[in-house]
Design brief:
Elements: H1 7-13, H2 21-26, E1 30-34, H3 44-50, E2 60-65, E3 74-79, H4 87-101, E4 106-110, H5 114-119, E5 122-124, H6 127-131, H7 152-165, E6 169-174, H8 176-191, E7 197-202, H9 220-241, E8 245-250, H10 257-266, E9 270-271, H11 274-279, H12 284-300, E10 306-311, H13 314-317, H14 319-334, H15 343-358, H16 360-367, H17 371-379, H18 394-411, E11 421-426, H19 428-431, H20 437-455, E12 461-466, E13 476-481, E14 486-491, E15 494-499, H21 509-523, H22 539-542, H23 547-552
Parallel strand pairs: 3-4, 3-6, 6-7, 7-12, 8-10, 8-11, 9-10
Antiparallel strand pairs: 1-2, 2-13, 4-5, 12-13, 14-15
């Protein structure tokens, strides 16, 4: 049976993504202009020793056409990690770029992410298959997965499977962890003289894979536009009903880029930034009291309503909660007998007793939590026994604690308003949306550029498109060495090379702009309603990039 598609899908299938001028003019067979020697973001001596074959490579930019007719390329591609809007267009750009280089080029898609490379499960792309997925959301074209490629045994299997298919190049589409694995695979393939090139493309809706050369990770624009529409709708509802406080948890466990961007888009009353809380060592009770103070102040102005944005990973940035989670992870892994206890009260009492003898700070932190959150900390664990922080209902935790504080103030006659709440979690709603025009263009350009990197024989690179605040034809295509983004971090008791996550910079322009406006947004109902993603209309409405990039590059 033929697939049925909506009118929007049909219209989006006809959309032709825009390319940087150099790529549009010359195709993807480009000559790379190379800069000087580069170094890692930190731990230079150690990273150089770990990556002797791919360290110090130059940043490259594509400006001029290549000389002669390039040879055909057999390449493989994987989608790795969580979904992000635009992944299909990265593959489309890569496919078209390879065919433009040489019509005899071939592209294989490995199924289910990195595990497909190891298990040798794949499809071969052709025009008909590729055309079904252009400008669509999701990763369903070949699927994704979270298998890590990090052992020599895995690398040897990848090389063996690629050679059996005649594949000489791999493109890894993923976030910081996935491209860390790509960097390690590129180094291993170079050390073994395998003849296999490895390049990456920067993906994550969290926005934490960025630097001077990678201005944005793909999918961030689309996801924040989806969340912006939902938050805008809630703001309008709050301002209409005038009786609810909405607490909205947003995806982004390690960084608050999504919350910051959504704040610029919608101007909610309160936006929590995890990085600021960590820097100021703000306690959970201080966060709660600060929210309660704004609720009280708005109530005194006759406004028993508002909207609070909460980053998904907030709990891990609160000092005493971070210590508590660390203690719990260690304690739960060494006390399996807790699972034999009957009922929540026994389990909670068991933990309180153990924490009290170990740390007064963590014991106090645990005791001040609502029982529902205490239960979640103890019951919701991963296969290794660790607390699954991303599943903690942080928005509900804040609601309960703010309600308690306001109740105490009301008993003293210090609060006379009402505090009626609604909680939300916006995450999966944004990961597979049809890409915005910006992400459709950006992703297609990233894939096209990846094919140029392969045609130039480059390995250990991340596809880079810069100058993103300008129209697409003024974007700059190139690549940066993956080792430039590496540093050493402590993982499972060992120092490991990983790509450094880009957190919200408190001395950066976007946070300063937010900080200059938040007091006004707290009290004034300066709500903005960005509406749904605009695919059709004037360029200043449809093609504009995120507010964060515009402020950063202003």
């Amino acid at each position: 049976m033929a697939k049925t598609i909506s009118p929007l899908q049909k219209a989006r299938a006809a959309y032709k993504p825009k390319l940087p001028k150099a790529l549009a003019a010359h195709g993807s067979a480009m000559k790379a202009a190379k800069g000087g020697v580069t170094e890692s973001v930190a731990d230079q001596k150690e990273i150089k020793a770990l990556f002797p074959n791919t360290y110090g490579l130059p940043v490259v930019t594509f400006e001029d056409p290549a000389e002669g007719k390039p040879s055909a390329i057999k390449a493989g591609v994987i989608l790795s990690g969580g979904q992000a809007p635009g992944g299909h267009n990265v593959i489309a750009g890569l496919y078209d770029g390879l065919k433009k280089i040489n019509s005899g080029s071939e592209l294989f898609g490995f199924l289910g992410g990195p595990s497909g490379l190891i298990d040798n499960k794949y499809v071969k792309f052709d025009d008909k298959f590729m055309d079904e997925y252009r400008n669509t959301g999701g990763f369903d074209i070949i699927g994704s997965g979270r298998t890590k490629l990090e052992t020599e045994e895995q690398f040897d299997t990848v090389i063996k499977n690629c050679k059996a298919l005649g594949i000489t190049a791999l493109v890894v589409i993923g976030g910081d962890d996935s491209n860390t694995n790509a960097c390690m695979l590129a180094e291993y393939c170079a050390r073994k003289n395998s003849g296999i090139l490895v390049v990456g493309c920067p993906k994550t809706i969290d926005g934490d894979l960025k630097n001077e050369w990678i201005e944005a990770s793909f999918g961030f624009d689309t996801a924040t536009k989806v969340y912006g529409e939902l938050i805008g709708n809630i703001l309008r509802d709050a301002n209409s009903a005038k009786k609810y406080w909405h607490f909205v948890k947003l995806m982004g466990r390690s960084a608050s880029h999504i919350g910051l961007e959504c704040a610029f888009k919608t101007h909610p009353n309160i936006t929590l930034i995890s990085e600021e809380i960590a820097a100021k060592k703000t306690t959970l009770l201080e966060i709660v009291n600060n929210i309660a103070a704004i609720v009280k102040k708005r109530a005194e102005a006759g406004k028993d309503f508002g909207v609070v944005l909460v980053p998904e990973g907030l709990i891990e940035f609160v000092p005493e909660m971070k210590a508590l989670i660390s203690h719990l992870n260690d304690m739960l892994s060494h006390t399996p007998e807790i699972d034999t206890l009957d009922g929540d009260d026994q389990k909670i009492g068991f933990i309180v007793g153990r924490l009290s003898s170990a740390s007064a700070e963590t014991s106090s932190a645990f005791s001040c939590l609502p029982k529902s959150i205490q239960r979640q900390l103890l019951d919701d664990r991963d296969p290794h026994g660790n607390v699954q922080v991303s599943r903690i209902d942080t928005e509900k935790l804040l609601i309960e604690m703010v309600d308690t504080v306001l109740g105490e103030w009301k008993a003293k006659g210090e609060f006379k308003g009402k505090f009626t709440t609604v909680s939300h979690f916006f995450g999966y709603e944004g990961r597979c949306a049809a890409p915005s025009n910006f992400d459709a263009d950006y992703c297609y350009s990233l894939g096209y550029t990846a094919s140029s990197l392969l045609a130039d024989g480059l390995t250990g690179y991340l596809s880079s498109i810069r100058n993103l605040t300008k129209p697409a034809d003024q974007w700059i295509a190139g690549g940066i060495p993956l080792t430039m983004m590496m540093n050493l971090e402590r993982r499972h008791g060992m120092d490991k090379p990983v790509i450094r996550k880009a957190l919200v910079e408190l001395d950066g322009k976007p946070f300063k702009e937010f900080a200059a406006n938040r007091d006004t947004w707290a009290m004034e109902d300066d709500y903005q309603y960005p509406g749904p993603i605009q695919y059709f209309g004037p360029s200043e409405v449809c093609d504009v990039t995120t507010a964060t990039i515009q402020i950063e590059r202003s």
